[in-house]
Amino acid sequence: MVHEPIMKIISDTGYQYISDSFLMNSTIKIGISASQFSANDPLDKFSFSHGVNGNKDTVLFSKTLVGTEKTNYNFSVNKRLGNLSKSKEQFYFTLLSKKGRILQLSYTAFIKYHK
């Protein structure tokens, strides 16, 4: 049986966890919590990337996990949204296990000009 690492969007107070609409230049807090599924397939690499209106995403942060991060890893960021009205900003959290399994979650922010 093949198992994937477990990853979820953080839904604590102060975090955005459901795709929503925001005013231009708003700042949002988003993040993930991840854990390995089995001892023989620890977490290995993490990346956080961003794309606008379906354009190719840009990696904003990447890390090879070490020590206890290979078992449990949390990542959160305060991200300022752009100033392009009616755009769609997508944020991708990508996790790679030691055996090469990939898990990706995304969060979408829709940018609006007025309230």
Task: Offer a quick outline of the entry.
The protein is mainly beta and 115 residues long. The protein is built from no helices and eight strands.
Q: What ranges have pLDDT less than 50 throughout 5 or more consecutive residues?
A: none
Question: What best-fitting shape do the alpha-carbon axes yield?
Answer: elongated
The SS-based structural class is mainly beta
Rg, alpha carbons: 15 Å
Number of helices: 0
The run of helices and strands is: EEEEEEEE
Average pLDDT works out at 90
Span of the ends, CA to CA: 49 Å
Approximate helicity band: under 10%
**How many DSSP-defined strands?**
8
Q: Order of strands across the widest beta sheet?
A: 2-8-7-4-5
**Largest sheet descriptor:** 5 strands, mixed
Question: What percent strand?
Answer: over 45%
Write up this protein.
- The protein has no helices and eight strands.
- By secondary structure, the chain is mostly beta strands.
Question: Can you tag this structure with a few keywords?
Answer:
115 residues; mainly beta; five-stranded mixed β-sheet; three-stranded antiparallel β-sheet; 56% strand; elongated
